[in-house]
Design a protein that fits this description.
alpha/beta; Cytidine Deaminase, domain 2; 228 residues
């Protein structure tokens, strides 16, 4: 997870979070690179493929092999993958017609999210992302990573590999919601995305265009609903 450092005669011990670069290969061809905390790498690869628009159907992934020795992840997929997806937006994505979420749902989700996960508790530096499904409200999965994009991809990938329909799910992230974060969520088909930080104007435009609920500035007793 990390390693301990300290100064002589200094009482504070800090655990540093790891961040490494992995190359992703798709059907033997270079696909791209990700900077990540090296845990849950199969989930990361599956989520990256879906959230970056490289594949449309995660069930077409037939195998994922992680090679720690050369920091590479090799994915086999029966679906033709996109070599040059759009940088932003979600071209080809249908409007999202998932669950409707209430302020009471958000309060429950935020209380659960505030329970500090292990990596963040140890390092005070990790981003996290949590998937919640409605009826009844339940936490399905929580990911952690040095970067908010990779934390989101791990959560999306877990859902993809476990055949969870993200149209029925709410994604909560610890970071701000940039245009790219919103695009990743839209491409995955998640019905709602919420974050503890700010939201960009372009992220709001994407949410409105594709029908995704978007919430920012989530605190204990307040939040801003930009699109619902």
């Amino acid at each position: 997870m990390g390693f301990m450092i300290g100064k002589k005669d200094h009482k504070d011990i800090v655990e540093l979070i790891h961040e490494k670069i992995f190359s992703i290969f798709i059907n033997g061809r270079p696909g791209g690179t990700v900077s990540c905390t090296p845990v849950d790498l199969r989930q990361l690869a599956a989520g990256w493929l879906l959230s970056e628009g490289r594949i449309q159907d995660p069930s077409t992934i037939t195998d994922i092999e992680v090679r720690e020795e050369d920091r590479s992840i090799h994915v086999l997929a029966s679906e033709r993958t996109e070599d040059d997806p759009e940088e932003t937006g979600a071209a080809g994505r249908n409007r999202i017609t998932g669950q409707q979420w209430t302020e009471e749902d958000l309060q429950w989700i935020n209380r659960a999210f505030e329970e500090e996960p292990p990596l963040r508790a140890a390092t005070k530096a990790a981003h996290s992302c949590m998937i919640v499904r409605k009826y009844p409200l339940e936490i399905l999965y929580r990911s952690e990573d040095a970067g908010r994009h990779s934390a989101l991809d791990k959560a999306i990938g877990w859902a993809a590999l476990n055949k969870v329909d993200l149209n029925d799910c709410f994604l909560m992230t610890s970071g701000r919601i940039s245009t790219r974060m919103a695009a990743k969520a839209v491409r995955s088909g998640v019905s709602a995305l919420a974050g503890k930080g700010t939201v960009t104007a372009e992220a709001v435009e994407l949410a409105e265009e594709y029908g995704m609920t978007l919430i920012g500035y989530v605190k204990e007793n307040s939040a801003t609903w930009f699109h619902e």
